[in-house]
Amino acid sequence: MSQVEQVERGYFGEFGGSFVPAELQNVLDILEEQFLKYKDEPEFNEEFQYYLKEYVGRQTPLYFAERLTNNAGGAKIYLKREDLNHTGSHKINNVIGQILLAKRMGAKRVIAETGAGQHGVATATACAMFGMDCIIYMGAEDTKRQALNVFRMELLGAKVVAVSKGQGRLKDAVDEAFADLVQNYENTFYLLGSAVGPHPFPTMVKHFQSVISKESRNQILEKEGRLPHAVVACIGGGSNAIGSFAEYIPDTEVRLIGVEPSRAATLTQGTAGLLHGFKCLVLQDEKGNPMPTYSIAAGLDYPGSGPEHSHLKTSGRAEYVAVTNEEVLEAFQALAKVEGIIPALESAHAVAYGMKLAATLNEEQSIIINISGRGDKDVEQVFEMLKK
Ligand SMILES: *Cc1c(COP(=O)(O)O)cnc(C)c1O
Predict the structure, then answer these.
(1) Mean pLDDT, range 168-172, rounded to an integer
(2) Which CATH number is associated with domain 57-89+210-387?
(3) Ligand 1: does its nearest atom lie under 6 Å from the Cβ of 234?
(4) Nearest CA residue ID for atom 1, ligand 1
(5) 22 CA to centre of ligand 1 in angstroms
(6) Which CATH number fits domain 13-49+90-205: 3.40.190.10, 3.40.50.300, 3.40.50.1100, 3.30.230.80?
(7) How far apart are CA 42 and CA 53, in angstroms?
């Protein structure tokens, strides 16, 4: 076993950093150097903007949800429609950014982890479009539960590797992907899907997802002539939330609110600890082992959280709240019935809290709820739950 190294870069207060074996640290150092080299380069950004527009379909609307507003009774509710992106969620924003970086680094082979399959599908999609080899690591248990998503990735030309080590879940898939990267870093790029992991991943994912708040800030100023009272987003690893918050962080009058499942309430209830090579608020037992979590939204079922969210929480700049599965199911149906929009179960967490919040505010105020994805993937599960 090689020595564990700590890198000073990539800290958000006391959270973040990089606690990984030396050979992996070498690979992450190269990645950081390349990311810093390209992130502000005009040619790189032109290409990024081109694919966001022509392939993903950006910009996404900031939609005034008038009937939902009337239903909630209070502040104007605006929905940032990330569900309208190609592949149906915000994940593709980060995938396009990282794959352009992979191309410049000369990688021929892209690997990624996936839990329920959303990030795997987005990565397989971009690899098909760029003609890259694609390998997706997925827990063996998850490949059984999400057989259709496995087929979808294969249809897109990816190879799905079922990981049966450990519990055969997301955590084991991440471990396998890092092991692959260490072995094959000369031709391989690890395209991580959320604002978690060792530096530079949280910083890089935030950079590419910030397009959400860059757009919404301009859009709300155009529509309302002033900034919103609050921005509300759901939290799994934290990528759609940090992308929705990023441009408002300096605007301290704008409340930033992350919404978690009550039984995976990492930021509301967690304590500082180490997970997957970085420091964050974690749900852990006395021995520091991650605790089992449960959410009806597979994308939010993670015992850790992005390091920047951990810092925004402890510094008081952002607020984190939890909602129950029952509230989420109600919000899922409410948005479908009054606005004709079926949200992902993940996004329905933000809708559930957003509606409660709007009711406490007045008509002069506005809030933005990030609809991170569409709910087509969830209708069968909701059908089964409502039957009971
Ligand atoms: C993956 C996913 C999430 C959770 O991930 P974050 O990194 O917290 O954004 C939320 N919503 C949708 C639709 C997802 O696919």
Answers:
(1) 86
(2) 3.40.50.1100
(3) yes
(4) 299
(5) 30
(6) 3.40.50.1100
(7) 16
Query: Cα separation of 114 and 299, whole Å?
Result: 10
pLDDT tier, 388 (very low <50, low <70, confident <90, very high otherwise): confident
Query: Of 91, 171, 206, 313, which residue is the catalytic one?
Result: 91
Evaluate: CB of 347 within 6 angstroms of ligand 1: yes
pLDDT averaged over every residue in the chain: 95
| Cα–ligand 1 centroid distance for 371 (angstroms) | 10
> How many whole angstroms from 204 Cα to the centroid of ligand 1?
16
Ligand 1 within 6 A of CB of 350: no
pLDDT digit string, tens, across residues 24-75: 999 999 999 999 999 999 999 999 999 999 999 999 999 999 999 999 999 9
| Alpha helices per DSSP H over 185-253 | 201-209, 211-224, 239-245
Which residue's alpha carbon is at the smallest distance from atom 3 of ligand 1?
Answer: 299
Active site residue 91: yes
Domain boundaries, the chain: 13-49+90-205, 57-89+210-387
* pLDDT above 90 for 3: no
pTM for the predicted model, two decimal places: 0.96
Chain-centroid distance, C-alpha 287: 28
Alpha-carbon distance of 245 to 239, in angstroms, equals 10
Predicted local distance difference test score (pLDDT) of residue 8: 60
Using DSSP's 3-state secondary structure scheme, residue 61 falls into coil
Tokens 């790189």 belong to 44
E strand or H helix at 139, and its extent? strand 133-139
| Residue range 294-302: mean pLDDT, rounded | 87
The minimum-distance atom of ligand 1 relative to the CA of 373 is 13
Residue 1 pLDDT level (bands cut at 50, 70, 90): very low
> What spacing in Å lies between the alpha carbon of 111 and ligand 1's midpoint?
19
State the pLDDT confidence band at 303, using cuts at 50, 70 and 90.
confident
Q: Is the CB of 91 under 6 A from ligand 1?
A: yes
β-pair partners for 371: 81
Structure tokens at 350: 């933000």
**pLDDT tops 60 at residue 121:** yes
The closest-lying atom of ligand 1 relative to the alpha carbon of residue 209 is 9
